[in-house]
From TrEMBL:
Top-level taxon of origin: Eukaryota
Gene Ontology biological process terms in this record: adherens junction organization; calcium-dependent cell-cell adhesion via plasma membrane cell adhesion molecules; cell migration; cell morphogenesis; cell-cell adhesion mediated by cadherin; cell-cell junction assembly; homophilic cell adhesion via plasma membrane adhesion molecules
Protein name, entry field: Cadherin-12
Role played: Cadherins are calcium-dependent cell adhesion proteins. They preferentially interact with themselves in a homophilic manner in connecting cells; cadherins may thus contribute to the sorting of heterogeneous cell types.
GO cellular component annotations of the record: adherens junction; catenin complex
Signal sequence extent: none
Transmembrane segments: 530-561
One Pfam short name: CADH_Y-type_LIR
Subcellular location: Cell membrane
GO molecular function: beta-catenin binding; cadherin binding; calcium ion binding
Topology relative to the membrane: Single-pass type I membrane protein
Sequence ranges assigned to domain Cadherin in this UniProt record: 4-84, 85-193, 194-308, 309-413, 413-531
Length: 717
């Protein structure tokens, strides 16, 4: 209730309310100032409200007093039960745990005011789950209440927990939750066989390594605590079998280690032990965590294929052995009680098998063709044996036949075939060590023997010393050798091998006599000294050789001078204009022939260096030109040319050297007609060359040479 001292009760004062919940949760009587709650209040929703109140004049609307603030606090009542916010709970505890073992702690929350009364004081209790578990009323800790709880008896427990406020008093509110508790496994149980004897039947044809049966020991534990290891206790038949653990089923899988044979032994008995792999030391006092059972195995008789006496056969035969020769045999037996006969066959796979045959009854193997070790040194094939009573039951064996080499080739001396001996050799001196080689495939331990041939053993020059290790030494038998008397010795050495049949060969060793120094070092093995006169010294030999060299030098100089003199006689100068004269077998093509000899070469001798040859004429003789100085200043050449011109002008058969070309056939169709001077006048002076200027520019050079001036032999070049 609000009241102002200025309120006289006559209705002149009006009260107003503002703040938290004004108008919604709380309302005020404007005349009396009474405050009322217009709906239910929840302390857990809002524990207090802050409001502001003011008194104002009804007429003027002006405040009569300053605004005042007050707080309305909601008082708590026990209207909320305890709640397990994390429930339901799941917990576990090892089986066989002692009393009071910790399991889990639960907690309930009460929304009431813990500072006011007992509305929020919670007490815990178990409604369901006794007498296995207990709970602390204040802390909510759950513990085991019974000892030795066995998982194998009961694994899951559901415990109902209650939390009650008001300290558990009558009228308090309560909440519940469920706790699911699981007993975890510990290895508290040993494996146990459900029966003491296991009977198994196994065919004798079972393969080694195959599983022939399973046994199982039962362990009520779980997980790794139930893992079992099986072992065969040493005893009767235990070495023929092995046992392993199937990791998924924990069964013992018995496997065969060795072949079974009904005819040899029909039954086996042994013991198998099952034990845990992971032991818990807390339960050792319970007893040994293992169990033992007996396994009896009966071998079943089966119809089996024949069995060969060996897993593989190896035989040997010499090459070129006659066809049909027996080289060996294979043997197979039927070990069954009926003991059927056996037949043998070749396993035909390729043409190699045709080299041999086998007797179907006896199993003997014989050659079917001639064998050659150099072609095939080894044969590998298979033989099949089958029972007469049941041909489908067969067995196979490999046969290897090695072709042995026949001693066909005799041994021969290894290189070198030639050696030497010093002239000053002493008796018994070894001059050469020789070895032997055999083209045959020599077996291990092959021995070669060395000796002199019968005709050489009586000669006093050399001997052979066999060292009996496939080597021999050539030894001297006399004191000193003379090259002058005999330069070469031929020593026949006989070599034999130790194979069958024995082969031998005679090898000739050439021994050359050489001149050596006192230490035995060879200085010369040549024969030049043999042909020199007795007593001729080295100085005399050098003098003779020097004289021969001097005579050869004199002869060479003499011949060279004679050649030079002959050359000077034929040619007075190094330059000869005749080198410019070229002989042809045919005349040129006349005016149309532009490849003819260039007459300008006569005016300029340097043009000769071009060495041009006519394309259509093959010269008889072609001389290589050399560089010459101009001929105008050489008087000897000019005189020589003048002399030759005079001789040829008076000789009707001489070629016209004025053109420096000889033609055997004149050109056809030339407007200049023939250039031959065979029918010319006796002298050049009687000729008229003015017509050359009428022949055109092609003959301008000739016209200039012969038409503008009279003939003067002194000006001819």
């Amino acid at each position: 209730k609000l009241h102002s001292d200025l309120d006289k009760g006559v209705g002149t004062v009006k009260y107003t309310l503002s703040g938290d919940g004004a108008g919604t949760v709380f309302t005020i009587d404007e005349t009396t100032g009474d405050i009322h709650a217009i709906r239910s209040l929840d302390r857990e929703e809002k524990p207090f409200y802050t409001l502001r109140a003011q008194a104002v004049d009804v007429d003027t609307k002006k405040p009569l007093e300053p605004e005042s603030e007050f707080i309305i606090k909601v008082q708590d009542i026990n209207d909320n039960e305890p709640k397990f916010l994390d429930g339901p709970y799941v917990a576990s505890v090892p089986e066989m745990s002692p009393v009071g073992a910790y399991v889990l702690q639960v907690k309930a929350t009460d929304a009431d005011d813990p500072t006011y009364g007992n509305s929020a004081r919670v007490v815990y209790s178990i409604l369901q789950g006794q007498p296995y578990f207990s709970i602390d009323p204040k802390t909510g800790v759950i513990r085991t209440a019974l000892p030795n709880m066995d998982r194998e008896v009961k694994e899951q427990y559901q415990v109902l927990i209650q939390a009650k406020d008001m300290g558990g008093q009558l009228g308090g509110l309560a909440g519940t939750t469920t706790v699911n508790i699981t007993l975890t496994d510990v290895n508290d149980n040993p494996p146990r066989f459900p029966k003491s004897i296991f009977h198994l039947k196994v065919p004798e044809t079972s393969h080694v390594g195959s599983a022939i049966g399973r046994i199982r020991a039962v362990d009520p534990d779980f997980g790794k605590n139930a893992e079992i290891e099986y072992n065969i206790v040493p005893g009767d038949g235990g070495n023929l079998f092995d046992i392993t653990t199937d990791e998924y089923t924990q069964e013992g899988v018995i496997k065969l280690k060795k072949p079974l044979d009904f005819e040899t032994k029909k039954a086996y008995t042994f013991k198998v032990e099952a034990s845990n792999l992971h032991l818990d030391h807390r339960f050792h006092s319970v007893g040994p965590f293992k169990d033992t059972a007996t396994v009896k195995i009966n071998v079943l008789d089966m119809d089996e294929p024949p069995v060969f006496s060996k897993p593989m056969y190896t035989m040997e035969v010499y090459e070129d052995t006659p066809v049909g020769t027996i080289i060996g045999a294979v043997t197979a037996q039927d070990l069954d009680a009926g003991s059927s006969s056996v037949r043998y066959f070749m396993d035909w796979k390729n043409d190699v098998d045709s080299y041999f045959t086998i007797d179907t009854t006896e199993g003997t193997i014989a050659t079917n063709e001639l064998l050659d070790r150099e072609s095939t040194a080894q044969y590998n094939f298979s033989i099949i044996a089958s029972k007469v009573s049941n041909p489908l039951l067969t067995s196979k064996v490999n046969v290897i036949i090695n072709v042995l080499d026949v001693n066909e080739f005799p041994p021969e001396i290894s290189v070198p075939y030639e050696t030497s001996v010093c002239e000053n050799a002493k008796p018994g001196q070894v001059i050469q060590i020789i070895t032997a080689a055999d083209k045959d495939l020599s077996p291990a331990g092959q021995r070669f023997s060395f000796k002199l041939s019968s005709e050489a053993s009586n000669k006093p020059n050399f001997t052979v010393h066999d060292y009996r290790n496939n080597t021999a030494g050539i030894e001297t038998r006399r004191n000193g050798y003379s090259r002058r008397q005999q330069e070469l010795y031929f020593l026949p050495v006989v070599i034999e091998d130790s194979s069958y049949p024995v082969q031998s060969s005679t090898n000739t060793l050439t021994i050359r006599v050489c001149r050596c120094d006192s230490d035995g070092t060879i200085q010369s093995c040549n024969v030049e000294a043999i042909f020199l006169p007795v007593g001729l010294s080295t100085g005399a030999l050098i003098a003779i050789l020097l004289c021969i060299v001097i005579l050869l030098v004199i002869v060479v100089l003499y011949v060279a001078l004679r050649r030079q003199k002959k050359k000077d006689t034929l040619m007075t100068s190094k330059e000869d204009i005749r080198d410019n004269v070229i002989h042809y077998d045919d005349e040129g093509g006349g005016e149309e022939d532009t490849q003819a000899f260039d007459i300008g070469a006569l005016r300029n001798p340097k043009v000769i260096e071009d060495n041009k040859i006519r394309r259509d004429i093959k010269p008889d003789t072609l001389r290589f030109t050399r560089h010459r100085p101009p001929a105008e200043d050489n008087t000897d050449i000019r005189d020589f040319i003048n002399q030759r011109l005079k001789e040829n002008d008076v000789d009707p058969s001489a070629p016209p050297y004025d053109s420096l070309a000889t033609y055997a056939y004149e050109g056809n169709g030339s407007v200049a007609e023939s250039l031959s001077s065979i029918d010319s006048l006796t002298t050049e002076a009687d000729q008229d060359y003015d017509y050359l200027s009428d022949w055109g520019p092609r003959f301008k050079i000739l016209a200039d040479m012969f038409g503008e001036e009279s003939y003067n032999p002194d000006k001819v070049t």
